[in-house]
């Protein structure tokens, strides 16, 4: 635990150092070849990724959001999660508590329960993530049995529910046939993919209880259903560095939580480099397709865009910092098999990706500050329980 605290302090120092040296520095690109490799996102008019065929199981879209946080257009986010990847589904929101990380952790503080009753969406003493996942899986299984074929889609905490449902149905004789159901995850806290694993998977062994989350780490169970997992490169929840002693990689991943963890749900196939799509087949014949989606810039660089930095300067900054960040991921040891994790042409802009959902729910302009203020103003005007 002391080592983690020391790492956190070092991360904060790194972020401050990078920020202070940002746009005033004379950044010089260190490589002639764009990091995306030839033929994709070269910055010089490389071809766009070919269209990806429709994916998922036709029918209903059983959708679950992440943690229920005040000021976030929760229902709108769920309705739009994966909309460009799974078009045509008859989508419905599957309700579950969607507890925040702190859960019951603060319940010992006098007055917390009273404050929670008045403003439950702050999450000061709400349901834990473990409780939420338990309730969520029951609700999904009930809806699937009643609603019929389709695709279960989970964002963040909702992806943890997806895992629980797949595990429950793995050897259930009453489970739907494999061709009647599929699953999709965005920003999966339990992700295992061809390039890395999530923070939880790397940190907590199977069978251990994650502190604060009240969540028991599940084993990896082979599902009979096809799965599609979408990961934003450098998202600290789903794409944690496997060399965590690299402080630059840690700092970038921490910022990646803010830039890409939720926004990845609003990407589309145009953002996908072909080499970032990997299919694996498990022992039961089901296919897991992993999509690692690059942002336009490193998470550490993205904020400078919103402060007015030019694309040219951000590209130079990416080129200088990216080798340092990528050293924290063993997947980059072989450039021939490394995924594209930054692309200034076809990668996505997190603020632009989330803007339609925020504007549909709250109105306002599309820039990040306006989106934040619109959410705050909406909560102040309509009360904490409004979405």
What is the number of independent domains?
1
- Count the E strands: 9
Largest sheet: 7 strands, mixed
Overall, the morphology is globular
Biggest sheet, spatial arrangement of strands: 2-1-3-4-7-9-8
- Total helical segments: 11
Structural class: alpha/beta
Q: What is the C-alpha radius of gyration, as a whole number of Å? A: 21 Å
Query: Helix-strand pattern, N to C?
Result: HEHEHHEHEHEEEHEEHHHH
Give the helix proportion (percent range): 25-40%
pLDDT under 50 segments (min length 5)? 1-50
Approximately what portion of the residues adopt beta-strand conformation?
5-15%
Termini gap? 37 Å
Mean pLDDT across every amino acid position: 83
Provide an overview of this structure.
- The protein is of the alpha/beta class and 387 residues long.
- It has one domain (2-382).
- The protein has eleven helices and nine strands.
- It has helices at 2-21, 74-80, 112-118, 129-147, 157-169, 199-203, 247-260, 302-306, 311-326, 350-362, 368-382, and strands at 60-64, 90-93, 150-155, 181-186, 209-210, 215-216, 226-232, 277-281, 287-293.
- The strands form two sheets. It has a seven-stranded mixed beta sheet with strand order 2-1-3-4-7-9-8, with helices on both faces.
- A hairpin with a 5-residue loop joins strand 8 and strand 9.
- Helix 10 packs parallel to helix 11 (368-382).
- It starts with a helix and ends in a 5-residue tail after the last helix.
């Amino acid at each position: 635990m002391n080592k983690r605290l020391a790492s956190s302090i070092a991360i904060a120092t790194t972020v401050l150092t990078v920020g202070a040296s940002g746009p005033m520095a004379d950044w010089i690109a260190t490589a002639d070849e764009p990091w995306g490799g030839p033929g994709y996102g070269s910055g010089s008019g490389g071809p766009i990724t070919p269209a990806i065929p429709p994916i998922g199981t036709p029918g209903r879209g059983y959708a679950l959001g992440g943690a229920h946080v005040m000021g976030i257009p929760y229902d709108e986010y769920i309705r739009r999660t994966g909309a460009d990847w799974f078009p045509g589904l008859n989508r419905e929101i599957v309700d579950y508590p969607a507890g925040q990380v702190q859960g019951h952790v603060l319940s010992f503080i006098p007055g917390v329960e009273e404050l929670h009753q008045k403003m439950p969406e702050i999450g000061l003493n709400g349901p834990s993530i473990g409780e939420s996942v338990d309730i969520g899986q029951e609700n999904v299984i009930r809806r699937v049995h009643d609603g019929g074929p389709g695709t279960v889609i989970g964002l963040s905490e909702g992806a943890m529910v997806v895992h629980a449902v797949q595990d429950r149905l793995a050897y259930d004789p009453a489970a739907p046939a494999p061709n009647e159901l599929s699953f999709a995850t965005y920003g999966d806290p339990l992700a295992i993919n061809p390039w890395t694993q999530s923070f939880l998977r790397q940190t907590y062994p199977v069978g251990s209880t994650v502190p604060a989350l009240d969540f028991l780490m599940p084993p990896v169970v082979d599902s009979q259903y096809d799965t599609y997992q979408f990961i934003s490169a450098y998202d600290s929840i789903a794409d944690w560095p496997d060399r965590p002693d690299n402080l630059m990689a840690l700092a970038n991943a921490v910022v990646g939580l803010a830039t890409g963890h939720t926004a990845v749900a609003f990407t589309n196939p145009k953002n996908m480099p072909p080499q970032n799509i990997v299919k694996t087949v498990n022992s039961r014949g089901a296919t897991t397709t992993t999509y690692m989606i690059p942002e336009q810039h490193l998470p550490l660089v993205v904020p400078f865009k919103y402060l007015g930095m030019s694309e040219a300067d951000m590209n130079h900054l990416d080129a200088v910092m990216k080798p340092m960040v990528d050293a924290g991921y063993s997947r980059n040891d072989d450039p021939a098999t490394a995924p594209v994790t930054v692309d200034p042409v076809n990668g996505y802009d997190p603020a632009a990706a989330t803007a339609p959902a925020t504007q549909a729910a709250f109105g306002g302009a599309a820039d990040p500050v306006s989106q934040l203020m619109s959410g705050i103003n909406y909560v102040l005007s309509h009360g904490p329980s409004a979405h």
